[in-house]
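Revision sheet: C-alpha cells.
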Amino acid sequence: MAGYKDGQDLLLGFMEDSEFLALGHSTGCKISRSSETGERVTKENSAGKFKEKYVKSLSVSISADGFVYDYATADERGLPKLRRIWKDAIPVKLRWHERGSTQKYEEGMFIITSLEDDAQAGDDRKYSVTFENSGPVTDEEDSGSGSGSGLDT
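Predicted:
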C-alpha cells in the first residue's frame, strides 16, 4: 500500500558545477507548472459553441521560504547567495527531487523574480524567494555514477 508523501522530502537546490547545494534552512517550497493557451477557430468548427484550445508555451515558477541564518554555509546556500544571484541578474541552475529512494529529478535555468527579507520584532528572520524558468525544464535520472545530483541528501 502506497503512503502519503511528506512535504519535507521535496528538496530544492542550486547546481554548481556538478554539485547539488540544497537551499539552506528552507521551510517551504511550492512548484507551479502552468500553460499559456491559445484558441483556434476554423470555418468547419466556427459554427459550434466550443473553441479548440492549444498550448502555446509552458512555464514553471518556484517559490520557497526559509530561515535566515548566520554561519559559513549561508554564503553558499542561504539569503546572501540569493541576494548575489538577484543582483547579478543572471539565470541559475536549480534542481529538485525527493529525498531518499528516488533517482529522478527535474532541473532547469531560473531567474529570481522576487526576493523578500522578513524581519519582524520578536520573531525569527525569514526570507521568501520566487524563481521563474528561463528555458526548458527537464526530467532527468541519476546514473548513480556520482554525478552530484544530491540524491543522497
